[in-house]
Amino acid sequence: MKVSIKELADFLFRRRCLKKIIEAGTNCLENEISEISIDSRQLGEGALFCCLEGSKRKGVEFAQDAQRKGAVAVLTSERVDDLAIPQLIVKNAGEACGFASAYFYGLPTSKLLMIAVTGTNGKSTTTYLIKSILDTGDMKCGLIGTIVYNDGKSHEDADRTTPQAPLIQSLLNKMVDNRCHACVMEASSHGIEQKRIFGCLYDRAVFTNLTPEHLDYHGDMENYFCAKRDLFIKYMRGDWKASINIDDPYGEKIANEFAPHILGFSLRQKAENAFYGSIRRSSIRGITMDISFPEGFTLENVTLPLLGEYNVLNALAASSVAWSLDFDAEVIRKGLENCPPVPGRLERYFVEDGPVCIIDYAHTPDALEKVLSTVKPLCNGRVWLVFGHGGERFKENRPILGSIAARFADCIVVTMDNPRSEDPRDIASQIADGIKSFPGSSEYWTIIDRKEALHFALDRAGKGDVVLVTGKGPERQIIFKDRTIPYNDFEALKEWCNLRGRVLS
Q1: Does 109 show up as a binding residue in the annotation?
Q2: Predicted TM-score of the model (pTM)
Q3: Which of 12, 150, 252, 264 to pair with 130, CA 20 to 30 A apart?
Q4: Is 311 annotated as a binding residue?
Q5: pLDDT by residue (tens digit) across 121-169?
Q6: Is 211 marked as binding a ligand?
Q7: Domains and CATH numbers, the chain
């Protein structure tokens, strides 16, 4: 895609983003932009470099580097001295970067049905379920989320839940080129607050829940909630609809504030204009449930290849979105029942004549408690838990995670997650404090090497036991301060099976 600096500046002016232009020579605004970049290390010849605020450095500090590497202009909220390329001075660099990216890629959201999923837990599974239903109903759907970016033709491992605006718009443009009709994407609180989704407008949205997470960034739950709420205030369009978990107190707030646009879903209450779910049967292999639609119709005996009450809520969320788009109930059933496994979300693997190993991304107290309270009643033997906690994250959670582990698990192996700049032994010690604080606490071991920790648990678990390994899900590396090493929980499980001559299904 190529547009001139002048064309893009005119668009930003119409969007009331542009304050002024500092030119750098005759006809300099006629130069074409070849890409939008926020990283001076990776931009190519002809790029527009967007100077965004980082957590530690300002983007304007890298404007000279961008010029040396071939940028034809910079987009910035403050003038940069001694720059020989045009400067587009904007009111807010994050917002303008989003609009500029959208324009450069041909305003792709105007050509797609856009669905956003926000909340603390359940976003990834809900996006997979929505995509499965839409694909089943011949509405080809792309996906942007924590696990993968899928443009309708190919997919790549995700770098972050909600990527930066240039990548979002590039992916959306590929979806259009690949004949997608819709896009479902996770909208994280960081992505909303940092303006990464500027340039996107949504037709449908989902709110799953809100529990304490990212409070090291947001400060408190009210700020965290306000970031999520901004999705519904600033980013919806037309006759939009939002599917809201009305069992969650924050979801209830959103439902009350935006009532004309709301479809509720619940496991607790049969409310007007809401979906209601009831669980018929549950086992380690899945759930059979009924879904009651707002008009009184009930879709019976839906077999979910998922575990947990919270995944029933995710299924209700996906069903309500599809219903609002006029999908037939049997299409909804087929889409739910045939949803592919969601990597790192209660992934189950059965060891022949041995334990069931479950891999899950749960890394917050609420998520860990939900996973353990789901697995415990379905386990015929002991629950083994292998987990740690990320460095440079909400440290107050560590003893809480330990006490939750002690409350539900029979045997605990404390290990590392992504220690980053912290000593993983210190993190493990803080988790162990929580384990020891629980009366009659479970037996536990500290084994810092994560693969060794998982193999230790698998060696000691027997038939009927469950080995639950949490925190990293589908991640494929462990991050230290000065290096990153390859690691994946499933690969560690496969290696154990190969070493022990065990069959995995």
Answers
A1: no
A2: 0.90
A3: 252
A4: no
A5: 999 999 999 999 999 999 999 999 999 999 999 999 998 889 999 999 9
A6: no
A7: 3-105 (3.40.1390.10), 108-338 (3.40.1190.10), 347-500 (3.90.190.20)
